[in-house]
User: Which sequence fits this backbone?
C-alpha cells in the first residue's frame, strides 16, 4: 500500500497544511475563455423559470405525499413513498444547491425561501453547509481543504453500494446536528464557519431537532411509523437520488489539481434527470462559472465545450467509468482516469478581461474614465495610476469600485449587477455599490468605493476629491 492510501482528509489535518504549502489553497483556477458579453448574458437570472420548476417539484412532492398517505396500510403505498422520498430527500439537493448559490431566482428572498426548507429535507444545517460549499468551490477536491469529498482514496465498489443506503451518511448528519443542537462544536465548524455565525449553526440545529422530536412524538402517539416516512425519514430513504447524481460529479477523478476539467465531470443526461438535478450534470461548467444559473448551463456548455474534455455520453457510461476507477484505485490509490484535455489557452487569476480604459489625465487633476453612456448592468474595467478598478452602472447611477473581490481574488468585472448590488462570479458574494458593504455571504470585508463626477458626458475620477473624502 502506498503512502497516499493513508492521506488525511480532515480539514485540520496534515494534508490541510500540505495543501497550503503546495499553493493549492485559495489558488487560481483554469477558466475557459468566453466572450465577456456572452458570459454577462448567461448570468442573467429570472424569477419565472425557476418558479415554474419549483412549483412542479412541490406539486409532485405534495401529490405523491398525499397519495402515499392515502394508501397507507396497503403495499401500493410503497412505490408512492419511494417517489415521495426521492423528491424530498433526493431532488431537494439540486434546489438546495442552486438557491444556496443565490443563482436560481433573481430575487434573493426567493432563493432563501427555498434554501432553508431544502436544507432541512437533506438534514444539512443551512449555515454550516453554506460555508462548506463556499470552500468546496474555492478548493474543489483538494485533500484536507474540501469537506465535500465523498470518496476518499482508497475507494471501493462495496462502499459505493453501501453509501446508497445512506444509513451511515444520514446517521452522521443527524448525530452531528444533535451535537450542534447541544452547543457542541467540531473541527469542521471551527474551520469553515466564521465565529460570528457559529451561533446560527447551533440554533438551526435546534430547530431541526425540534421538528424531528415532534415527528417522533406524533409517531408514538399514533402508534404509526408513517409520520416518520413523511418527515425526517426521506432524508435517509430518499437520499439514494442525491447520491445517484452526486457521485457522477467528481468520483474517481484527480485530486489536488487546479483545473476543474481534471477533477470534475460533465455528463449528458435526459430531460427528466435534468429536471430532477437542475442541470447540475453540466458540472465542469458550473464549477468554472458558478454565477451562471442552472437554466443557462446548457448554453454555457455549447459556448465552451471545445475547451473541455468530451462529456460522458450518459449516466450508465459514467457509472461504468467510476466502478472501473474504484477497482483500479483500490489496488493503487495513485491510479488516475485518463482524461483528454483540449489544449485551450484559457486563463488563470483575477484579471481576465484586460482594461478597456486606462485613465488619462484630463479635466485638470481628474482622470478621464471614458464616456458616461453605460446602460444599467454594464461595467468598464479601468486602470488608474496602475490600480485596477471597475466602473459600474446600476439603477441609473454610475459607481467606481475596486475590481478584485475582498473575499478572494476574483475579478468582479466578470460578475453581475443585480439592482444596486455587484455579485462576485466566484462564490456569488455581493456588495452594495453605494457603500461597498457586503450584502451576501461569504463577503466579510467591504469593497472600496470611490467618488466620481460626470463632466461633459465623461466619467471623471479626481484624486483630490477621493483623498478629501477618505
Ligand atoms: S472571491 Fe469569494 S465571493 Fe468573491
Assistant:
Amino acid at each position: 500500500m502506498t503512502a497516499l492510501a493513508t492521506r488525511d482528509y480532515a480539514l485540520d489535518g496534515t494534508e490541510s497544511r500540505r495543501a497550503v504549502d503546495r499553493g493549492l489553497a485559495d489558488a487560481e483556477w483554469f477558466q475557459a475563455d468566453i466572450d465577456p458579453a456572452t458570459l454577462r448574458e448567461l448570468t442573467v437570472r429570472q424569477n419565472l423559470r425557476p418558479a415554474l420548476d419549483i412549483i412542479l417539484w412541490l406539486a409532485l412532492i405534495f401529490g405523491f405525499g398525499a397519495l402515499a398517505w392515502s394508501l397507507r396500510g396497503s403495499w401500493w403505498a410503497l412505490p408512492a413513498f419511494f417517489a415521495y422520498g426521492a423528491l424530498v430527500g433526493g431532488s431537494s439537493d439540486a434546489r438546495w444547491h442552486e438557491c444556496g448559490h443565490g443563482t436560481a431566482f433573481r430575487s434573493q428572498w426567493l432563493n432563501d425561501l427555498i434554501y432553508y426548507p431544502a436544507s432541512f429535507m437533506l438534514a444539512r444545517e443551512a449555515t454550516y453547509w453554506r460555508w462548506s460549499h463556499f470552500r468546496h468551490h474555492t478548493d474543489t477536491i483538494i485533500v484536507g481543504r474540501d469537506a465535500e469529498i465523498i470518496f476518499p482514496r482508497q475507494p471501493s465498489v462495496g462502499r459505493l453500494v453501501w453509501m446508497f443506503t445512506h444509513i451511515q451518511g444520514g446517521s452522521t448528519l443527524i448525530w452531528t446536528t444533535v451535537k450542534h443542537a447541544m452547543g457542541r462544536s467540531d473541527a469542521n465548524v471551527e474551520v469553515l464557519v466564521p465565529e460570528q455565525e457559529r451561533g446560527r449553526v447551533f440554533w438551526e440545529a435546534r430547530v431541526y431537532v425540534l421538528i424531528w422530536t415532534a415527528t417522533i412524538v406524533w409517531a408514538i402517539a399514533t402508534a404509526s411509523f408513517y409520520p416518520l416516512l413523511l418527515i425526517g425519514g426521506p432524508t435517509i430513504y430518499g437520499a439514494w437520488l442525491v447520491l445517484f447524481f452526486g457521485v457522477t460529479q467528481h468520483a474517481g477523478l484527480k485530486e489536488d489539481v487546479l483545473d476543474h476539467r481534471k477533477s470534475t465531470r460533465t455528463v449528458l443526461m435526459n430531460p427528466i434527470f435534468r429536471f430532477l438535478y437542475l442541470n447540475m450534470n453540466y458540472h465542469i461548467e458550473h464549477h468554472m462559472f458558478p454565477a451562471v444559473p442552472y437554466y443557462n448551463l446548457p448554453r454555457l456548455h455549447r459556448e465552451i465545450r471545445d475547451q473541455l474534455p468530451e462529456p460522458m455520453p450518459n449516466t450508465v457510461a459514467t457509472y461504468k467509468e467510476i466502478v472501473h476507477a474504484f477497482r483500479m484505485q483500490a489496488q493503487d490509490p495513485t491510479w488516475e482516469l485518463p482524461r483528454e484535455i483540449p489544449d485551450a489557452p484559457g486563463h488563470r487569476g483575477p484579471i481576465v478581461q484586460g482594461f478597456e480604459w486606462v485613465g488619462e489625465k484630463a479635466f485638470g487633476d481628474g482622470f478621464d474614465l471614458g464616456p458616461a453612456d453605460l446602460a444599467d448592468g454594464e461595467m468598464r474595467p479601468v486602470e488608474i495610476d496602475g490600480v485596477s478598478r471597475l466602473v459600474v452602472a446600476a439603477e441609473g447611477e454610475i459607481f467606481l469600485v475596486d475590481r478584485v473581490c475582498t473575499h478572494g481574488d476574483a475579478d468582479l468585472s466578470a460578475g453581475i449587477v443585480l439592482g444596486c448590488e455587484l455579485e462576485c462570479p466566484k462564490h456569488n458574494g455581493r456588495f452594495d455599490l453605494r457603500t461597498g458593504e457586503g450584502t451576501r455571504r461569504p463577503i466579510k470585508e467591504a469593497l472600496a468605493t470611490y467618488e466620481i463626477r460626470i463632466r461633459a458626458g465623461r466619467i471623471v475620477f479626481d484624486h483630490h476629491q477621493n483623498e478629501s473624502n477618505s
Q: What stands out?
A: Residues 165 and 225 are 19 Å apart (CA to CA). The chain has two domains: 3-331, 357-469. Residues 357-469 form a domain with the Rieske Iron-sulfur Protein fold (CATH 2.102.10.10). The pocket of FE2/S2 (inorganic) cluster is lined by residues 405, 407-408, 410, 424, 426-427, 429, 442-443 (CB under 6 Å).
